[in-house]
Write a structure and sequence with these properties.
Blueprint lengths: L7 H15 L9 E6 L1 H4 L10 E4 L11 E5 L5 H4 L3 H4 E6 L5 E7 L10 H14 L5 E5 L2 H9 L4 H11 L3 H4 L5 E3 L7 H11 L4 E4 L3 E6 L2 H21 L10 H10 L12
Bound molecules: Dihydroxyacetone and zinc ion (ZN).
């Protein structure tokens, strides 16, 4: 067996959580990441049948039965993951009946996965239905995106449109737009179900006055989606109180999307 602490997926979780922490997206225990792993790859590092503990999921994740995830822990701080991955991260296999998570590694102080794990797993199920290559769900509290939630209508067409106007690259990076949920109680199956529902249509979902979810085929894709939204939200927050003299027009946004060959939400533009 190879040393799990050298596994690329552990390294990637360490690097990404440290990076997100330093960007200010994950104060205290804010944020969580889950990544679907390849069972054969995990088997090079762990006996995938050696269960340390069984933790009930609180909902039926049957479509993910026997799949293995690496996930951040509840009450754990992103800033600490790189220094103590075995305590702050866990690797779990979803049970064959879909009702439990079998802990294979990590959460070494007796902890458990993020309270948002149901929302993550429901989002994984939704994304895998539309893109069988999707592996990552990421949640965080990026500062300017959150600030924008307080001064901009929480309407997905208007929110997406405003962000598309803020940076030329936006419509190319997230042509599918951003789903928006109103403020809801977090850590519940209900917010998980609403998030997953939006995830069928969008790779980005704003949780009103809380944060954002991003999905991707790999860590980079989920990360750069959120990074691009956050950059655009920063430009918005730097300019929203000033007279707008120039803007990227809707016909120019369409021109961009067509030039780069992306399938964009035409109904989010006034053409
Ligand atoms: O895990 O961000 O939404 C902490 C959170 C809850
Ligand atoms: Zn949160």
């Amino acid at each position: 067996m190879k040393d799990i602490l050298t596994a690329p997926f552990v390294e990637e979780m360490k690097r990404t959580t440290a990076n997100m922490y330093r960007l200010g997206w994950d104060e205290r225990n804010g944020g969580n990441i889950s990544m679907l792993l390849d069972t054969e790859e995990v088997a090079q590092y762990l006996d995938v049948d050696a269960v340390i503990r069984t933790i009930p999921l609180g909902f039926d994740a049957y479509p993910l039965a026997d799949r293995i995830f690496i996930v951040t822990g509840t009450g754990k701080y992103f800033k600490n993951v790189e220094f103590d991955p075995e305590n702050n991260l866990g690797i779990v296999r979803i049970s064959s009946n879909g009702l439990d998570a079998h802990l294979l590694w990590g959460f070494s102080d007796g902890g458990r996965f993020t309270s948002e794990f149901p929302a993550h797993l429901m989002s994984h199920i939704a994304r895998l239905d539309v893109d069988p290559e999707n592996r990552v769900i990421m949640h965080c509290h990026p500062t300017h995106t959150l600030a924008m939630n307080y001064v901009h209508e929480l309407d997905e067409r208007k929110f997406t449109h405003t962000l598309w106007e803020m940076c030329t690259e936006c419509i190319v990076v997230f042509p599918d737009g951003i789903g928006v949920l109103p403020w809801m109680l977090c850590g519940t199956n209900s917010i998980g179900e609403s998030t997953a529902c939006k995830m069928r249509e969008f790779r980005l979902v704003v949780w009103g006055m809380h944060g954002i979810y991003g999905a991707g085929r790999n860590m980079d894709e989920a990360f750069v989606l959120i990074e691009t939204v956050e950059k655009a939200a920063q430009i918005y927050m730097l300019t929203a109180h000033l007279p707008r003299i120039n803007t990227i027009k809707d016909n120019e946004l369409a021109e961009l999307a067509e030039f780069f060959g992306v399938n964009y939400r035409k109904d989010f533009l006034d053409l």
